[in-house]
Amino acid sequence: MSEGTRLNKYISEAGVASRRAADRLIEESRVTLNGRIAVVG
């Protein structure tokens, strides 16, 4: 099984937001992945 990258880390490394800010964006349903809203899980 391959290891993935946490979405908040990816968003942070892309320079979009800090990891905590990325967590908030995900919780507020403001992040989509492949056309689907990302959820904390």
Q: So what's the overall shape?
A: globular
Q: If you compute it from the alpha carbons, what radius of gyration comes out, rounded to the nearest whole angstrom?
A: 10 Å
Would you report the number of β strands? 2
Report, as a whole number of angstroms, the end-to-end distance.
19 Å
Supply the number of helical segments. Answer: 2
* Largest sheet: spatial strand order: 1-2
What amount of the residues lies in strands?
Answer: 5-15%
The profile of the biggest β sheet is: 2 strands, antiparallel
Could you characterize what this model shows?
- The chain is α+β, with helices and mostly antiparallel strands and 41 residues long.
- It has one domain (7-37).
- It has helices spanning 7-13, 19-27, and strands at residues 32-33, 36-37.
- Helix 1 crosses helix 2.
- The mean pLDDT is 93.
Question: What's the SSE blueprint?
Answer:
Elements: H1 7-13, H2 19-27, E1 32-33, E2 36-37
Antiparallel strand pairs: 1-2
List the defining traits of the structure above.
41 residues, alpha+beta, two-stranded antiparallel ribbon, 2 strands, 39% helix
Quick overview of this protein structure:
This protein has helices spanning 7-13, 19-27, and strands at residues 32-33, 36-37.
